[in-house]
Amino acid sequence: MIDLLPKLERHGNSGCSCSHTPSEEPQSWGKQGWPNKHTLRILQDFSNEPSSNVSSHSLERIPATGDKTQALRRLEHYGQRGDKKRQFIQDATLAKSIPVKGSRLSALYEHPLYKRSLPPLTNEDTLVLFIKLHLTADSYPNWLRFHIGINRYELYSRHNPVIDALLKDLVTQRITSVAMKSGGTQLKLIMTFQNYGQALFKPMKQTREQETPPDFFYFSDFERHNAEIAAFHLDRILDFRRVPPVAGRLVNMTKEIRDVTRDKKLWRTFFISPANNVCFYGECSYYCSTEHALCGKPDQIEGSLAAFLPDLALAKRKTWRNPWRRSYHKRKKAEWEVDPDYCEEVKQTPPYDSGTRLLDIMDMTVFDFLMGNMDRHHYETFEKFGNETFIIHLDNGRGFGKHSHDEMSILVPLTQCCRVRKSTHLRLQLLAKEEYKLSTLMAESLVRDRLSPILIQPHLKAMDRRLRQVSASYLF
User: Fold this and answer.
1) Which parts of this chain are annotated as the region Disordered (predicted)?
2) pLDDT value of residue 154
3) Which positions are annotated as active-site residues?
């Protein structure tokens, strides 16, 4: 936790109460006393809700391809990786900036802040264990190598070459089947590849230049495929590494969707438009009608492909309601919007009263503000690791909707709690320097995607502007 010099300016009589000992160690945030029942209902684990976890928030709840037996057979086929040499993330002081020569992105990843290590991992720190077969790790498909590498502290290591290989697979692997994902407000497709890997496909719904209309509520906004791609790159530059790999792909709607799907409900929504383009609309709560059909040119459509996490039969996930969840109502406000001391109640409620979960929420707040994402209603963790693990940053499609507006309400968790990881603070300072300018790093990272350019220049500039405002929200 960072020393907050000395307190944050606040309206009214409420202020921040912050430790002056910078630390990344688990903390006990709660004060004496206990929150009321209403607050507990809002803040505690909501994984038993009908709409949470497996039912609607997990990508692996799919038709026949998601069958547990089939998933286990696929994984047993590939065996076990032997190399588990990693070390725990330790805090480091901000070292002198490295002179940039050539790639700024490469220079960033060579900075001491991006070179911390993990301790050797035990079986309890590894997400998925496999039966050892007569195969070497190099013979596993990249999606499986990605799954094996997930541990208590990270979705993937900083310099893991498997991630770039997996991104390439998402773009080049032959699509063998397609099905609609159940749940959710907008159409998403589950694509299975020739190597048995799977990914979530979000099709293009609007151009890069279109901004979210000012009168749109956040919950009725489009989910943008380019936002999913940009979110993965931003998450990696921030060194969170909590977004599954995402790549852009140009898909042939006839050969790679209609002709390979066994989903009759999806197949029946295909048609030829008056402009002689192939279109479909699928089934979902919003924007699934002929008026909102997805049309190709004539049958090519852009989309994002997000690699699946391990099957829920092997690695269960727990779904939690975000303490700073919005009301999702046209007139009502959430409790945090009317109570300036709301964070004090959060800090007394498990799992936010100890450990690093509250700091993870602050990381997620920074991540969402830089993207302009207001739609963070739930988050997930891997059940195996209990409360001592990271938050997975899923569903980022409503980011990057407005470059001309900075939604300051996204930063309320920071301004109410006055908490941020020291390592996160140091990286934000680094990314504000001209040598490691966030917009330049993002542009360099995104140019590698097949659908580049992913973001127009105003969105890149907006991230630099928002980065300055993040620091101002918890420091003078």
Assistant:
1) 11-34
2) 96
3) 375
CA distance 143 to 166: 6
Q: Which residue has the higher pLDDT, 101 or 334?
A: 334
pLDDT at 66 > cutoff 60: no
Q: Are 474 and 4 in contact (CB under 8 A)?
A: yes
In angstroms, the Cα distances linking 347 to 44, 356, 361, 386 are 12, 11, 12, 18
Whole-angstrom Cα distance, residue 239 to residue 368?
A: 14
Q: Is the pLDDT of residue 97 over 90?
A: no
Q: Please report, as a single letter, which amino acid is at residue 346.
A: V
Give the global pTM.
Answer: 0.82
> Do the annotations mark residue 443 as ligand-binding?
no
Is 306 known to sit in a ligand binding site?
yes
Q: Determine how β-strand 271-272 pairs with β-strand 278-280.
A: antiparallel
Using CA atoms, how far apart are residues 475 and 414, in angstroms rounded to an integer? 10
Residue 363 known to bind ligand:
no
Q: Is 380 annotated as a binding residue?
A: yes
Give the tokens for residue 23: 């630390």
Q: How confident is the model at residue 31 (pLDDT cuts 50, 70, 90)?
A: low
Separation in Å, CA 358 to CA 153, 272, 388, 467: 15, 50, 11, 20
Q: Other CB atoms closer than 10 Å to residue 8's CB: what's the count?
A: 19
